[in-house]
Amino acid sequence: MGTFFAANRLYTHYSTKTATRCQQKDHQTWIFNQSNFIIMTLENEQLEESQMLPDLTAAQKEIFELELMPQIDALYNFAFHLCYDEDDANDLVQETYLKALRFVDRYSAGTNGKAWLFKILKNIFINEYRRKARRPNQVDYEDIAIYHDSEEQSFSDFTDLRHELFQDMIGDEVTRALNQLPVDFRTVVLLCDIEGFTYEEISKIIDIPIGTVRSRLNRARNMLKEKLKEYAASLGFEDKRLKMR
Amino acid sequence: MNPTSNEQEFRRKLTMYLDSALSKEEEREFLAEIKNSPTYVAHLQHEQSFREFLRQKISRKSVSPALIESIKSKINLNSRNS
């Protein structure tokens, strides 16, 4: 997806990532790249015009500089682990900031800018990227298991993973195991264990009850441990499940 | 804590303790309940170690300077137009 500015309006088009500017005349639109070469012409109806961008006040600009832009590394990391594609992650983060720009008047300075941006990014991902990002060998958590997504049941299962089994693993193996989880499970692990959001913040970001956050986290961690165990077993390490009693 | 009947409750509290979801008083109570159970303490240590392992090992992707500049330029461009 490309986004272009012209006459203080934001345009989006879904066919190119290299465009930087557009010019419209007589029902035709010319798309330019950074070197100012025309790389595409479009009929007007092919171009989607979004809302007018707001004029930033000095205070809103300060919000972006001091509270929102510093979250870009965390946002990009989250986006990448959702999409598995650098270009899509770039687009997702860029769209997140452009949407934040449009709705910055709804944000109060000094509140939780990181959680606000993560919620925007999650919504864009769900609406525009999720279908594309879904891999053929996976199904969504909601598709198969929402009927037993209760907190009580989630704690009846608890996978132990001995330290000796995972201490020598390198990051690639762990990242691969995380990326194999269905996106709803992966999301809660990223938000809680990597980004350090609280249950309440996660609940607001992904619009599920706190009890469901807990149960989903518990299941996600169990699934991750099982995948790491499988990997350890493939290397010849024996799993000796720690018994509670 | 009775280990035969409260295993599930232990797991719930252990998870909430490690996720910093217990109040300070609840944390103290939880640690007091498990301190005489070597098995529970071992579980706590394993889980702490696993969480730390995840934080250290899951790769963090770095955002490109070009993306940062692109976003900043669009925000600044909009400001200049105002």
Helices and strands in order, then pairings?
The complex is a heterodimer of chains A (245) and B (82).
Chain A: E1 2-6, E2 9-13, E3 21-25, E4 28-32, E5 38-43, E6 48-52, H1 58-68, H2 72-83, H3 86-102, H4 113-133, H5 141-145, H6 151-154, H7 163-166, H8 171-179, H9 183-194, H10 199-206, H11 210-234
Antiparallel strand pairs in A: 1-2, 2-6, 3-4, 4-5
Helix pairs in contact in A: 2-3, 2-4, 3-4, 4-10, 8-11, 9-11, 10-11
Chain B: H1 7-18, H2 24-34, H3 38-57, H4 65-81
Description:
The complex is a heterodimer of chains A (245) and B (82). Chain A has helices at residues 58-68, 72-83, 86-102, 113-133, 141-145, 151-154, 163-166, 171-179, 183-194, 199-206, 210-234, and strands at residues 2-6, 9-13, 21-25, 28-32, 38-43, 48-52. Chain A has 245 residues and is of the alpha+beta class. Chain A folds into three domains: 2-52; 58-133, RNA polymerase sigma factor, region 2, helix turn helix motif (Rna Polymerase Sigma Factor, Chain: A, Orthogonal Bundle), CATH 1.10.1740; 141-234, Arc Repressor Mutant, subunit A (Orthogonal Bundle), CATH 1.10.10. Chain A has a three-stranded antiparallel β-sheet with strand order 1-2-6, covered by helices on one side. Chain A has a three-stranded antiparallel β-sheet with strand order 3-4-5, with no helix packed on it. The longest helix of chain A is centred in the last third of the chain and has 25 residues, at 210-234. The radius of gyration of chain A is 22 Å and the shape is globular. Chain B has helices spanning 7-18, 24-34, 38-57, 65-81. Chain B is mostly helical. The N and C termini of chain B lie far apart (64 Å). In chain B, helix 1 (7-18) packs parallel to helix 3. The longest helix of chain B has 20 residues, at 38-57. Classes of the chains: A alpha+beta (245), B mainly alpha (82).
Beta-strand content bin of chain B: under 5%
Report on the biggest sheet of chain A: 3 strands, antiparallel
SSE pattern of chain B, N- to C-terminal: HHHH
Rg from Cα of chain B: 22 Å
pLDDT < 50 runs, ≥5 residues of chain B: 77-82
- The radius of gyration over CA of chain A amounts to 22 Å
What is the count of structural domains of chain A? 3
Mean pLDDT score of chain B = 84
Q: Structural class, from helix and strand content of chain A?
A: alpha+beta
